[in-house]
Design brief:
The chain is α/β, with parallel strands linked by helices. The chain contains nine helices and ten strands. 33% of the residues lie in helices and 17% in strands. The strands form three sheets. The protein has a six-stranded mixed sheet, with helices on both faces. Strands 3-4 form a two-stranded antiparallel ribbon. Strands 7-8 form a two-stranded parallel sheet. The protein is globular and about 45 Å long.
Length: 218
């Protein structure tokens, strides 16, 4: 599995690093998790400078793409030079956004049902664009997920684990990162939102757990 964590300048550290850290626990099982950015060095909102691991073209070939938020997301959404590099395909990729990352999904035409989760600062921007904001922290429809609130990035990571590795492996990874003594409650909470509804087909047609992603394009 190849996982792209899209990270733009003035990014929120929690969005990129929590998801990257959790999903990186799957490295021994053949997963590759990469921080992807349009420039060789990107700086966080608090001034931390990070060297990218891949450019944005990596996202086009990744099995899952998570788009973090930041203080200048609205600027980057208006930058065609950046947006044109994000060639994403929900028919063969899992695609998720964190907080203002939902603006990127909207720009790319990926919020097809017109609803998203986001943070309080981004909410009015999305509503001005005609997107209804869900009151919850996480929402997934098919291969598209949105999350709101910095620490909701754990739900995005749990969603990717459930979809691409299966529940047993997801529980193993989440238990590893959970606060000591709180493993059971933490794992149940982290999996509650991303878990499919009762009676839903599982896994979906596009994927199967445990390193057996089946690309629709062959």
């Amino acid at each position: 599995m190849q996982i792209a964590i899209v990270t733009l300048d003035c990014f929120n550290e929690l969005d990129s690093f929590i998801a990257s850290g959790i999903l990186g626990r799957m490295t021994p099982h053949g997963w590759t998790v990469r921080i992807c950015a349009p420039a060789p060095i990107v700086q966080s909102r608090s001034g931390a400078r990070v060297e990218r691991q891949e450019d944005l073209s990596y996202a086009a070939r990744a099995d899952a793409v998570l788009i973090g938020s930041g203080w200048r997301t609205r600027d980057w959404v208006a930058d065609d030079a950046i947006m044109s590099q994000l060639r994403l395909d929900p028919s063969r990729q899992l695609i998720g956004s964190q907080c203002s990352g939902a603006l990127v999904l909207h720009k790319l035409g990926l919020l097809s049902d017109g609803i998203a989760c986001t943070d309080g600062m981004t909410r009015p921007m999305l509503e001005q664009l005609g997107i209804a904001v869900s009151p919850g922290a996480f929402r997934a429809v098919g291969n598209i997920a949105t999350a709101g609130g910095c620490l909701a990035s754990q739900y995005l990571a749990a969603w990717v684990l459930l979809r691409l590795a299966g529940e047993a492996r997801a529980r193993e990874v989440l238990s590893y990162v959970a606060p000591v003594g709180e493993e059971r409650d933490y794992v149940e909470r982290a999996l509650r939102s991303p878990r499919p509804a009762a009676g839903a087909a599982w896994p979906p047609a596009c994927c199967a757990p445990d390193n057996s992603w089946r690309r629709m394009d062959g």
